[in-house]
Amino acid sequence: MIAPEMPADQFWGIMGRAMQHGVDPATHIDALGTELRGHTSEEIKSFEVAFRRYLNKAYTWDLWGAAYVIHGGCSDDGFEYFRRWLVSRGRDVYELALADPDSLAQLKVRPGPDGTWEFEEIYSVARRVFAEKGGKGDVRDYSEREAGLGGPGPSGEPFREDPEHLARRYPNLWRQFGAEPLG
What we know:
This protein is mainly α and 183 residues long. 53% of the residues lie in helices and 0% in strands. The chain is globular and about 50 Å long.
């Protein structure tokens, strides 16, 4: 059974406070864990539902193409970790990127320790805190399926792995990362 989704302001408040602790993944994960420990098991379920819905909403060809340009390529797993990173950056970055993926070129964000804009590890925080609080089962079982992992496919118009196409579709990202992608 799918749990109710946490209200957007509450979800983004939690993510924003955790994000203030820097780009170091371990510090960010600890901060998010601390935030979630202040909530009930039911609220953590609702957080997970919201987290997964934001991930699924970002499962678009436009964003996948942007990640492709930024990293000089982007596998299924890479796009999953990119979307996790995108949600971890907070509401403003997330919403602007969904509206215009090329806007990611405006970010003054350093890449993580692995040199990319990916954050695989953030996805396990709610599951761990839910288990610590005595939650039954895996917190992800109370949410819809994640896009790309048995859920829906990407929305929108697919990008082409062609430099001319990518330069036209993502002019700002191409100027910034086309010759020197992250990673």
